[in-house]
Design brief:
The complex is a heterodimer. Chain A is mainly alpha-helical. Chain A is about 75% helix and about 0% strand. In chain A, helix 1 (about 1-25) runs antiparallel to helix 4 (about 60-75). Chain A is globular, with a radius of gyration of 24 Å. By secondary structure, chain B is mostly helical. Chain B has helices at about 1-5, 15-25, 25-45, 45-50, 80-115, 120-130, 135-145, 150-180, 180-190, 195-230, 240-250, 255-285, 285-290. The radius of gyration of chain B is 22 Å and the shape is elongated. Chain B starts with a helix and ends with a helix. Classes of the chains: A mainly alpha, B mainly alpha. The interface of A and B includes residues 280, 288 and 291 of A.
Chain lengths: ~325, ~290
């Protein structure tokens, strides 16, 4: 197991290096260059030259590339052009809020999605199935920020059950109330994904021979569903949850903005408005690294859940 | 995993399968009907729209939906219904064009990688995997922020986020088909690789690609709206759905109609495309084809 994890981590290195290269290229897409974009057209030549020197833009491209790569690999993400503080420390301040939100959403998605998918699979082509499939489809069609705004309007503005601004506080009850709406919103989108995969995965497994054997042996239906079928159906579910993590992070950015919650979303918005390219580039690397890490965790869980996946291979 | 199911997927003529599946799947009719309605609304916006979408009218600012303004007016007194109709044009155009570009570039990459194989295949697919590890929305946001938001740049930004999935989808079936006898026959006749890929492989995998295209167009419209919402949309005063929500969000406490109607428009469009895409996918995927 340990050697499998180590090998999986080593395999991630080329992916991470290629990803950094993509970010490097993206930042060079800026028309003119980042210094002009950050300071504006009317900046003095001296100011531009100073910023270019600070960002390393006065060097030839290969030098810029090597410097960028070594900076990123050693965790030197540069200084925010706005606050002047290190990009990574700014990220570290708000990261717990985003993680808290995504974790809560994930729990909601699993808690609702799996039962919904199981019911749909068991009552296939009957009304619970249709209802669950329609709900999934609607859930998958909502852009995260649209459902967030509609929920905000319904539950915070009209019904006033929840605060309009989601500010985490020291009071645990208030804290949960402020977390509830954004987490529910992201969680329901996750529910839609999970319910859909659970259904199709359960249907696949329920058609297998060993399920028929279990039935023939007289095993109770409930036990078949939970022990025999769900155990095997979990494997694709784990994969999909892992694959959709990136989508959820993308959605969380917008949801945080809608609910005026501190987090990576607010950081991105601020960086966009102030044309803080150092910050944007750093955030991009942070996000992509996260996705790569989650993929590794998914693979490891996958191997742990499915005894057929051999660690040695 | 999907490579295997897709590879063995086209024993019947594709258009027949697609047509039959669509006929059987009633939900897909709702999708097609909705989509048709939205496309018509966008196409004939200048004729149906009751007002000029850019005309400001301070006397009627923030008026609630009424007989005069069916869906109300925004903080500049502009008619929400007219702006919605014109906004449909931008959303559909960006969604359609970006997916077309992504489809052309992505499928070409996937077919060539699958056909040639070897090192080229490894490099292309490695790159595809890297692109897929960026969340779609964030990648689009990054490219749009770097290039600057404009109609053309948004199409490029969204196309960049969606090229990799098309390469993935095109490569799998290409590998399966290149081992078939008729490709060997074509090779021994001395056809050029370009001709084999374009004339013999592409038509056989087109249905797989088209299915993905309808689902990714839904995603493209979602991404465009999301980017407009964070301020990376086609510049105001042009009406875009995401931009309308962005402006309406400032008045959410007093003027609900400013956010609700554009939200419904986005939702219906994406839902229509997803309904259609799901039905098409069921038609192509042999695993679900016999379900109904």
């Amino acid at each position: 197991m340990t050697s499998y994890v180590v090998r999986r981590l080593l395999l991630a290195i080329p992916t991470l290096l290629a990803m950094l290269t993509v970010v490097f290229i993206l930042v060079r897409l800026v028309p003119g260059d980042a210094a002009v974009a950050m300071l504006g057209d009317r900046a003095s030549a001296e100011a531009l030259a100073a910023l270019r020197a600070q960002l390393g833009l006065d060097q030839p491209l290969p030098v810029q590339y090597l410097r960028f790569m070594s900076d990123m690999v050693t965790g030197n993400f540069g200084l925010s052009a706005v606050s002047g503080r290190a990009v990574l420390s700014e990220v570290a301040v708000v990261l717990p809020y985003t993680l808290e939100l995504t974790a809560a959403a994930m729990i909601i998605g699993i808690a609702f999605g799996i039962p919904l998918g199981i019911v749909a699979a068991i009552r296939r082509n009957k009304w619970p199935d249709y209802a669950s499939r329609l709900l999934s489809l609607v859930g998958l069609s909502f852009p995260g920020f649209v459902s967030a705004i509609l929920m905000l309007l319904a539950f915070a503005v009209w019904l006033q059950w929840f605060p309009v601004m989601s500010r985490p506080t020291a009071n645990p009850i208030d804290h949960l109330r402020s977390l509830a709406l954004p987490a529910l919103n992201l969680g329901l989108i996750m529910t839609a994904y999970i319910a859909r995969v659970t259904r199709s995965s359960m249907l696949d497994v329920m058609g297998e021979d060993f399920i028929r054997t279990a039935r023939a042996k007289g095993v109770k239906t409930r036990s078949i569903i939970i022990r025999h079928a769900l155990g095997n159906a979990l494997i694709p579910i784990v994969t999909v949850v892992g694959l959709n993590f990136g989508t959820m992070i993308g959605n969380s950015v917008l949801v945080e903005i809608v609910f005026t919650r501190p987090g990576l979303g607010k950081l991105i918005l601020g960086a966009l408005q102030s044309r803080d390219y150092t910050m944007l580039q750093g955030l991009m690397v942070v996000f992509a690294t996260f996705v790569v890490l989650v993929n590794i965790v998914t693979d490891v869980i996958y191997a742990a859940v499915d005894p057929r996946v051999s660690y040695a291979k | 995993m999907t490579d295997i199911t897709l590879a063995s997927a086209t024993p019947e003529k594709a258009p027949n399968v697609v047509f039959n599946a669509l006929r059987r799947n009633r939900l897909s009719w709702i999708g097609i009907g909705l989509l048709l309605l939205i496309v018509l609304a966008a196409a004939f916006a200048p004729m149906i729209a009751p007002y000029d979408p850019l005309k400001q009218n301070i006397l009627h600012r923030l008026s609630a939906p009424s007989a005069q303004f069916w869906l109300g007016t925004d903080s500049f007194g502009r008619d929400v219904l007219s702006r919605l109709l014109y906004g449909a044009r931008i959303s559909l155009a960006i969604g359609f064009l970006s997916v077309m570009i992504a489809m052309a570039v992505g499928s070409a990459l996937g077919i060539v990688a699958g056909y040639i194989g070897g090192l080229f295949d490894q490099i292309v697919m490695g790159f595809v995997d890297v692109m897929l590890s960026f969340p779609t929305l964030l990648l689009g946001l990054m490219v749009a922020a770097m290039l600057g938001a404009s109609f053309e740049n948004l199409i490029i930004a969204i196309a960049i986020t969606e090229t990799a999935p098309f390469a993935r989808v095109a490569r799998g079936p290409t590998i399966a088909i290149k081992r078939r006898d008729f490709i060997d026959a074509a090779k021994s006749l001395g056809f050029t690789p370009v001709r084999i890929m374009g004339v013999h492989i592409l038509p056989n995998i087109l249905s797989d690609i088209v299915v993905v295209a309808s689902l990714w167009m839904a995603s493209a419209i979602r991404t465009e709206a999301s980017l407009a919402f964070i301020g990376l949309g086609v510049a105001p005063p042009a009406a875009t759905w995401g931009g309308m929500i962005r402006e309406g969000f400032e008045n959410i406490l007093s003027a609900w109609w400013l956010v609700v109607f554009p939200s419904v428009a986005i939702l219906l469009t994406v839902l229509a495309l997803n309904l259609l895409g799901d039905a098409l996918r069921d038609a192509i995927d042999p695993k679900t084809r016999n379900e109904r």
